[in-house]
Specification:
Blueprint: E1 16-17, E2 29-30, E3 33-37, E4 41-43, E5 55-57, E6 62-69, E7 72-77, E8 83-87, E9 91-92, E10 100-102, E11 106-110, E12 119-124, E13 128-129, E14 131-135, E15 138-141, E16 150-153, E17 157-159, H1 167-172, H2 191-201, H3 210-213, E18 219-220, E19 233-236, E20 239-243, E21 248-253, E22 258-263, H4 264-275, E23 281-284
Parallel strand pairs: 1-2
Antiparallel strand pairs: 3-6, 3-9, 4-5, 6-7, 7-8, 10-13, 10-17, 11-12, 14-15, 15-16, 18-23, 19-20, 19-23, 20-21, 21-22
């Protein structure tokens, strides 16, 4: 088997993406079928809910499905390329062309264009939907399973071609959001999910995990000691955060099990003391 990252490439000994013919060995190759997440979907490394959560596919996210078996779908995200197994019931068979995305950490989807009406639930930041009408302060989105769709407060949406101006300001909206490994839907976040979602809302395509971000986003800041500034991304092996100014780091972390701001030197000292790890790199857009 070729030395490929299994997080970003669809291959097993028995089945692989047809685009990997000649690159990997597999008994069978297949073409992925386009589907769309109709809810937030936990992505697992195995077709087993107890195998842990790698990441999440967001509402409206397009995925390619390479296999469906026993209620599980083996997929690859059309957004960041992440591969894993999801509950197949959460994938819609057809694609809705989305027009807007959620621009706030979380927003409710109402049954009617009325803040007192019942809700279907909520959508997290960067969830995508198609707006079909506007009534008062609410926008109606197309929803499968609901003949009349759902309603979202219009100011909580942004057109897909209207990104946020400051990704750090986006990230600051998540202060005190719980830390949750693999999460990126706004109800919880891990360290790389915070950076990825903040960058994505600001129009920057970014990979999912901290090691991927550390080698691809922006440019390396050499001699960063004493030169950090707002927007710098600081990376350790297995962890990352965003500078809100020259001295303070915003990060989702397991120490507090929250997304918090604290002096970057405090974080540097703590990680070195507990895990014997130094800063790996600093990157800047």
């Amino acid at each position: 088997m070729a030395d490929l990252d299994a997080r970003l490439n669809v291959f097993r000994p028995d089945l692989a993406d047809e685009r990997l013919k000649g690159v990997v060995e597999a008994k069978r190759f297949t073409k992925g079928k386009l589907r769309q997440a109709s809810q937030v979907l936990a992505v697992h490394p195995e077709p087993d809910i107890d195998s842990g959560m790698l990441t999440q596919y967001l509402f409206g996210e397009t995925v390619e499905v390479f296999e469906e078996n026993d209620g599980w779908a083996w997929c690859q995200s059309g957004d960041d390329g992440y591969v894993g197994y999801v509950d197949a019931a959460g994938l819609a068979p057809s694609i809705i062309d989305c027009t807007h995305e959620v621009r706030v950490p979380r927003t409710y989807v109402y049954v009617e264009a009325d803040l007192k009406s019942p809700t279907f639930g909520f959508l997290g930041i960067c969830s995508r939907a198609r707006v079909v009408s506007v009534e008062g302060r609410f926008s109606q989105i197309e929803m499968r399973g609901s003949e009349d769709g759902g309603w979202i407060f219009t100011d909580h949406l942004a057109a897909l071609d209207d990104p946020a101006l400051d990704f750090v300001a986006v990230a600051e909206q998540f202060i005190n959001t719980p830390y949750l490994w693999g999460a990126r839907d706004g109800t919880g976040l891990d360290c790389s999910g915070l950076i990825q979602m903040s960058l994505r809302r600001a129009g920057h395509k970014a990979p999912r995990d901290s090691d991927m971000l550390a080698t691809s986003v922006g440019d390396v800041v050499t001699g960063w000691q004493g030169k950090l500034q707002r927007g710098d991304m600081v990376f350790w092996t297995g962890h990352c955060g965003i500078m809100v100014d020259a001295d303070r780091l915003l990060h989702a972390h397991a120490t507090a099990m929250l997304t918090t701001v604290e002096p970057v030197q405090t974080v540097i000292d703590r990680i070195q003391k507990i895990e014997s790890r130094d800063v790996l790199t600093v990157r800047r857009l």
